[in-house]
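ESCALATION

Customer reports they have been waiting on this structure for their group meeting. Please prioritize. Original submission:
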Amino acid sequence: MSEQVAASRTAHEVVSNSVLFSLIFFSGAMALLPISTYFGSLNYIWPGNTTYAALSAVLAANIVLVGYIIIAARDDKSSREESQRAASKLESKKER
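Update from on-call: job pushed to the front of the queue and completed.
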């Protein structure tokens, strides 16, 4: 019984670490990418046009947000499949 708990706990820790890494990565991207996009596009792409630079920053923020949603959905799907596999292994061990 303790082996099953240890395996479940290890799988949960791996999922938690990947979720934490994704959160930290996308938080940093959300903080840095729009600001750098704004000033980069203000100085190099559209010199002096603050409206287009702001729209570029908004687009960058939305790209980061959509990326986070996709990664979160993929992680949720994989964790669901992992829990189903663990449940089926547990049931097969009970049948023995």
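Sent to customer with the following note: The mean pLDDT is 84.
Escalation resolved.
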